């Protein structure tokens, strides 16, 4: 992957791949969901959560259908968790930094990803469109939510974000009905 990114002169992809390869998994609990992509994402995020002092929990109650492409799986789940971590890092009290991931199938064809994170205040009050608030101009920002939405739409699904009682919920619904 790194070589393909370099051939296409994509510095952002190369940097992301390099950051994935830097993580150390020693002593961390390992996700064994039955899906290599989910395992890689969750296991990497476990290490990041520890680094950011975030209590990170996950529950995977389903086998991932083969219809769901690995790149799409990564686009949804990695971006949801990245956004949750970014929000948690804004919380000064480390004991309140919590991210909970749940992946399940609600019916024969409805597949769901939900990432909940604690927040200090309702993000919709000051930023109803959830535009990126990052100020680091050395990297592109604001593409995560767009990627999640576009990927969900590819599967006749949707991204639904809401806030309730100090918690932000990012839920992706995918319709995996045969077409």
Q: How are the SSEs placed, and which strands pair?
A:
Layout: H1 2-7, H2 11-22, H3 36-51, E1 55-60, H4 70-88, E2 98-105, E3 110-118, H5 123-126, H6 144-154, E4 158-164, E5 167-175
Parallel strand pairs: 1-2
Antiparallel strand pairs: 2-3, 3-5, 4-5
Helix pairs in contact: 3-4, 4-6
What is the strand tally?
5
Q: What's the order of the H and E elements? A: HHHEHEEHHEE
Secondary structure tally, helices = 6
Identify the overall geometry: globular
Given the helix and strand composition, which structural class is it?
Answer: alpha+beta
Which radius of gyration do the C-alpha atoms yield? 16 Å
Mean pLDDT across the residues is: 85
Strand order of the largest sheet: 1-2-3-5-4
Terminal-residue CA separation: 31 Å
What helical percentage do the residues reach? Answer: 25-40%
User: Major beta sheet, specifics?
Assistant: 5 strands, mixed
Q: Which spans of ≥5 residues are poorly predicted at pLDDT below 50?
A: 137-141
> Beta-strand percentage?
15-25%
């Amino acid at each position: 992957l790194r070589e393909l990114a370099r051939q296409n002169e994509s510095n952002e992809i190369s940097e992301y791949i390099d950051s994935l390869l830097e993580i150390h998994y020693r002593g961390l609990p390992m996700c064994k969901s039955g899906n290599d992509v989910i395992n890689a994402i969750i296991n990497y995020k476990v290490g990041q959560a520890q680094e950011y002092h975030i209590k990170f929990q996950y529950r995977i109650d389903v086998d991932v259908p083969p219809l769901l492409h690995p790149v799409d799986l990564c686009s949804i789940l990695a971006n949801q968790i990245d956004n949750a971590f970014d929000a948690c890092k804004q919380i000064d009290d480390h004991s309140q930094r919590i991210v909970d991931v749940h992946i399940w199938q609600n019916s024969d064809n409805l597949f769901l990803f939900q990432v909940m994170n604690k927040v200090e205040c309702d993000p919709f009050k000051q930023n109803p469109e959830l535009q990126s608030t990052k100020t680091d101009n050395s990297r592109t920002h604001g593409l995560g939510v767009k990627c999640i939405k576009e990927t969900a739409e590819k599967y006749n699904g949707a991204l639904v974000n809401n806030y309730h009682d100090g918690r932000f919920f990012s839920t992706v619904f995918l319709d995996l009905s045969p077409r």
